[in-house]
Each structure stands twice: as C-alpha cells, then as structure tokens.
Amino acid sequence: MNETKYYAGLDIGGSTIKAMLIDGSGQQAGDLVEKRSLVHEGYQRTFAQLNKAVTALLENNSLGPDNLAGVGVDVPAASSNGVIWARANLGEDWPGVNIREEFSRFLGKPVFMTNDGSAAAYGEYALRPDLQSGLLLVAPGTGLGGGLILPGGQIYEGANGLALEIGHISVPFHEEGELPPCSCGRKGCVEAWVSLVAIRRQLKIELAKDEHADHPLNQGDISIYDKAFRLRDLAEEGDALAVEIFRKQAYILGYALGDQAHELDPGLIVFGGGLAETKFRDKYLEDVKEGFAERAWPIYLNSPIPPHVETTRFEWATGGDSAAALGVALKAREMILE
Question: Is it true that domain 135-317 has CATH number 3.30.420.40?
Fold first, then answer.
C-alpha cells in the first residue's frame, strides 16, 4: 500500500460536487471527480455524496482510506468556524449546524471548511506562485460571488465569515427610474445588474419594447430562462441587444469594483465563471475597465511615480471548474502540516 499522504478538496455546488485529490507536494493526483449534489435533500444526504466522491478519488489512484490525511470542503453559503449561518441554496436542515465538525466525525478525518467564493479565490491564488499582491476574485454566474486572498495567501473571511458578499454592495444605477430588485430582497445591489438572474429581468424589459419585436428571442415559445441562456451565444454572434446587455453588465461591475479598490487595493482582480470561456471576453474586460476608470481614483489605475506601473490588474481565471476544489484541498494540506 502506498503510504504517501493525500488531501481531498470537495467543492459543493447546487447541482454538482467537484472533487480533487492532491499529494503531499500539492500536485493534483488523478482526474477531477464529479458527483450529483443533493444539498437540497439535507446535509446528511450530502455527506453520503461527499463520501462517494472521496472513495472514487482514492480508488482511481489505487489508494485506501489510510492514505487520506485531511479533507477540504467549501459550501455555497455563509458560514463561521464551520457553522452554516444562512440557508442560501441549501436544504432546510443546514443552518445552525457545525458542518465541519459533523463531516469530520462522519469521515473520521480532519476537515477544513470555507465558502465557495473564498475557495475559488485561493485556488486561483495558488495557480499564480509568483504573485506578490493580494487577489480579489469576482465570479458572475447565477448570482455574483467573490473572495479575497491577502498577500501571503491568507483567506479573508471577516470576523464572522461573512465578508466579500460583493454582489450585495450598492451601485447608483436605475432601471426605468427605479432601483432594480435583488434576489437578497434589497434593491440596487450590483448582483441585480450582474448575474444570470439580472439578465432574465433585463431581457423581459427589452423584449417587450417595440424596437425588439422582431428579435430572434421573441420568435417561438421558449421560457425566459432559455432565452437568458441563449444570450451568450447571441453575443458571440454579434447580436446588438445581447452585446449591449453584456456591455452594460460589465461596465456596472467595473464601476462597483472601483469602490472595492478604494477599500481593498487588491492589486489583482480575477474574473471567474462561464464568461471566461466566451469569444467576447476581451471586450467584456475592456468594458469592466471602462467602468472601473469611471469610479476608481487614477492612482488605482497607475502609480504617479515613474514608470507609472499598473496598480490594479485584471485577469481571467485560469483554474476553471476545479479552482475551488484545488483551493480547499491545498488549505486542508496546510492545516495538517502546520
């Protein structure tokens, strides 16, 4: 039996659990494993799925339970010291439970836990070993998540694990004279502008206008959900309405990040999510920079000292779907080796 110790990273999503195994040097061992997520059916059902993922990781590498030194887990909800504080997209029985302790007891292994945004941010940080600054991750998707890694590699979670709810900072943009509603129940959040949910609302408004009566998305009987999913393809084809919706989202996101730069001065802002794979991602990033320049002070763009180096850089994520699993696996390794 191979006596080398390994560490598993488990990224719990609403529909999929992504699992990665790393060895003692922090290198990935074998392929990523995916299992169906059952978060809506309770944390015990989820534990069973996580255990299946861990078992598959070990078996795929001809390893046994004794080779597993620790496990990292990320959750799609606010948590503090392992305790779930809010249901978010989880089942009813999650809030108030110390998932870290319960899963450690279930698995018989030490467990590190953080939220999904922080996990992905740390994964992206680890993929840039020469990075000297901090790293702010922003991930537009169904909602708008984020995570902050401080210089040196520390995850910033806040006093209660509630920091970096980037999607719920306010931006001064209006829609037909009103602040747009956000899924959190407030109005005017940046997530109300930059998310898949926001695209659905914006499409409803635009497609109801006479000028878009002949738009392809007004042809046929498809739901607003399907229309929103098709918008990315249309933007890649140069459709004017699709291009404008993504342009506005990118500009508002950049504007909001101007305030984040004032507060955090991260040095590097990384963009995750599905937009990283689009043909128009370069244009999207230029629109983000335009909004950022509108809001951020000039010193957050370039140093006033020659040679006037760039003070805030923008990059697309490189870790893809595996960044969060990598991040928590590496943190589990750090936890054991400390």
Answer: yes
